[in-house]
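Sample entry follows:

:::
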Amino acid sequence: MFLILLLLGFVLNWASAFTTVYSSRLGERRGQVVSAALRNVVGIPLWVLGLILAMRTSAPTLLAPNAVANAVGWLLIAAGSLLVTWALALLGLRTAAPSTRDTLVRRGPYAHVRHPIYDGVLCQFAGLALIQPTWPVMLSCLLGAGWAVVQARLEELDLLSRVPGYRDYANRVPRFIPRLWKR
């Protein structure tokens, strides 16, 4: 059951990445509502519920319990949560209700990577996999990592058509991993 909820949540999140299409067909406000509902009302709650069910599924651990892995796992979850919170605060309503009138954010973590929210979520998935290394959790985290990569790409396709300057920004700022050198 956890896989069905997880995958359905991911698919609905992917469908939320077409704000421009929804807005052009339904009007700006309705397109915004459709994108927001697909992501925030249905998609995210479903995949979070799937992840919770995976965590509650009884299964043997794939790795021996390890205090270091547990500590690193919690650090990754905390760091990922801080990054997600910071990035969401900078975006404000743009993340909850994307619009064809959105503007580009280039400060904070967005100055270094295009998708700090997904970077934070990837850290959280890695941390969770370290804390509870059972096959349902590991599979959920692996699928979640795949979801984040696809979601970021779909959102970029939409952002290219609705946010002025996004193409130049995408050419200068890496998707997930910050550059250690200047371009």
